[in-house]
Amino acid sequence: MEIVTRADRPELHEAAAVVFRERWPEFVFHDNVPKRYMGRVEEYFARYDVMVLDGGSVVAGGWGVPMAWDGSADDLPPGYDDALIRAVDGREAGIEPTSLSFMAVAVGSSHDRRGMAGVVLEELARRACSDGLTHVVAPLRPTWKHRYPMVSMAEYAGWSRPDGLSIDPWIRTHQRMGARVLCPAPRSMVIEGTVAEWESWADMVFPVSREYVVPGALNLVLIDRERDRGVYVEENLWVQHR
């Protein structure tokens, strides 16, 4: 296996995009904050955008952003969107980063259960350490939370197995690497669209105004037919690695 950055191998960008896209519901790709910031993220932080190749093919990838964080829960961004904003705005303002935030990791479905996610996370953490960053955090999107959309993230994060680890596979992956749960990321992503857009993204019909359980959504989606708007505020979970 080989680890490269997307900057090293730009011709693999589309292959990496396929690996990422198969792991998330369609509505995730309609968050407006990444649309405004990702171009600069790719320019500024290419060192923290890695891919794992096996036989020349992309089997996993992940990326993160360096940002200023004082180490306290109160200073954490509200979630994914604001971590992006803090990293980019901080870079442009000349603010020295202290921490790396893992933002996303994906593994091709044909390479599940081979520890590829851990390989990506460890490589990103190694780069952060070698660059002198003192903290590594992540606003996790727990794998099974969508099964319990009416349960708060704080409650869900406390559910554990007899061995003391989380019931959630993605939280467990981080716990096995030494991470500890910090607190919920209460406003990690905000995705808005028309009712027709949400019906397309969710492959559902929303006949009346109310909150709906939507496949893949960690929280309920609010549909307002009178205003022709659907709004989804996703709650994630901050963890900190050693």
Automatic annotation (TrEMBL):
Xref: InterPro entries: Acyl_CoA_acyltransferase (IPR016181)
Protein name, UniProt field: N-acetyltransferase domain-containing protein
Organism expressing this protein natively: Dactylosporangium roseum
Phylogenetic classification of the source organism: Bacteria, Bacillati, Actinomycetota, Actinomycetes, Micromonosporales
